[in-house]
Design goal:
The protein has 277 residues and is α+β, with helices and mostly antiparallel strands. It is built from 9 helices and 13 strands. Helix 1 runs antiparallel to helix 2.
């Protein structure tokens, strides 16, 4: 057996002579991980998933490629049926690289399960600054000069996107922008007033708090069975929904305005059920 270090080709001169590649760019385990990510991703259509996996097969041997043709079964998985997201993501990256604004129409679902245009089809024009991933969806983080606000848009809901000739604005707001910190504050990308909130939680749910707010959150003993922690969050119905999911095992301690807002949130839910008998 001889090895050509320049071409990474190994020649076998034994009973089974031939040539084969000694090592490849990706290990089989790495390719399997990529395949699982493609198959389990909600926003990638089934057709596109099959195409991507076929391309990944070419990065390994035929024998290993056969192993990549496997199914990853995820309960109640919903796959998208719109492939414009791939081109939207590419265009957003290009606009960010070229320091240009983008314009697009934005859609939303109706009760009739139809997609309709927001703003009666009027175009949004924004300065794209970042792409982020939340709850299996791509979101654009952008500055909208008309409202002088940072806004978030789901990329799969953007239509007729195009890059404009206008240079981006809002750079001062994003100079120290940290996506990691941002993701801890927001819940499902819904905006709200950023507030420093102290909560008290049962010790057994420390993992829930760490998973949501990160390992750098300070957990301070409150008593033998509870700890308290303080985080900055964008207060919204989605944040209150997360609290409700944890139940009575966690509660807001301060500020009082946030406690009252959460109480009103819960009362409104109860009132809705009372009105319906």
């Amino acid at each position: 057996m001889t090895f050509n270090s320049r071409s990474n080709i190994i020649q076998n001169k034994g009973t089974n002579p031939g040539y084969y590649i000694g090592s490849r760019e990706f290990e089989l385990a790495e390719l399997k991980l990529l395949v699982d990510s493609v198959q389990s991703s909600k926003f990638i259509t089934k057709r596109k998933s099959d195409e991507l996996i076929k391309k990944l097969e070419h990065l390994t041997s035929k024998y290993n490629g056969d192993q990549l043709q496997r199914q990853v079964y995820i309960y109640n998985r919903i796959k998208a049926d719109n492939e414009t997201i791939y081109y939207n993501v590419d265009m957003i990256h290009s606009a960010i690289y070229d320091n240009k604004e983008i314009r697009f129409q934005y859609v939303e679902w109706t009760a009739a399960k139809k997609l309709q245009l927001r703003r009666e089809g009027a175009f949004y024009q924004v300065s794209p600054w970042a792409l982020t991933w939340d709850d299996e969806y791509y979101y654009l983080v952008a500055y909208e000069v008309s409202s002088d606000m940072i806004k978030y848009f789901r990329v799969d809901k953007m239509r007729k996107m195009e890059i404009t000739d206008d240079n981006r604005t809002g750079g001062d707001l994003f100079r120290n922008f940290d996506l990691g910190v941002f993701s801890k504050k927001t819940f499902n990308m819904f905006q709200g007033e950023e507030t420093s909130i102290t909560m008290v939680c049962e010790n057994r749910l420390a993992g829930v708090v760490i998973d949501r707010f990160g390992q750098d959150v300070f957990l301070i003993p409150e008593d033998k069975e509870h700890f308290r922690f303080t985080v900055t969050v964008a207060v919204s119905d989605q944040f209150f929904g997360w609290l409700t999911g944890v139940g009575n095992h966690i509660k807001i301690k301060a500020p009082e305005t946030a406690r009252c807002a959460y109480q009103n949130y819960l009362r409104n839910i109860l009132n809705t059920y009372d009105e319906r008998g």
